[in-house]
Fold this sequence. Notes:
Elements: H1 12-62, E1 70-74, E2 80-87, E3 99-109, E4 115-126, H2 128-136
Antiparallel strand pairs: 1-2, 2-3, 3-4
Amino acid sequence: xxxxxxxxxxxxxxxxxxxxxxxxxxxxxxxxxxxxxxxxxxxxxxxxxxxxxxxxxxxxxxxxxxxxxxxxxxxxxxxxxxxxxxxxxxxxxxxxxxxxxxxxxxxxxxxxxxxxxxxxxxxxxxxxxxxxxxxxxx
Length: 138
């Protein structure tokens, strides 16, 4: 008969400690991989929404119709947008200028409501006197 002290192998405590170390390491690895995947999806969503908003902003700024003061909507990918138009304040007498200017701002939000980005542009509109002056010139 042999003694228990002479047997080789790992004790239960050593096995449990090894499993705990492996579990902690795997948790950290999977958390890092999951975080990278979420970040990639967020980047792709942001890029797609910004592309749609740029097209929208360009269409508004090139339109001859005055833009509405505020509008909002949802893009096909589910991201939300909110557009606000406010007059551009200039420190000089703006009645003498041949055009009016407005700041167009589009805020982008994900489906969950997180802000993805902000786009701004300036829309110029010819004033009635500027068009009349041009028509009256030879």
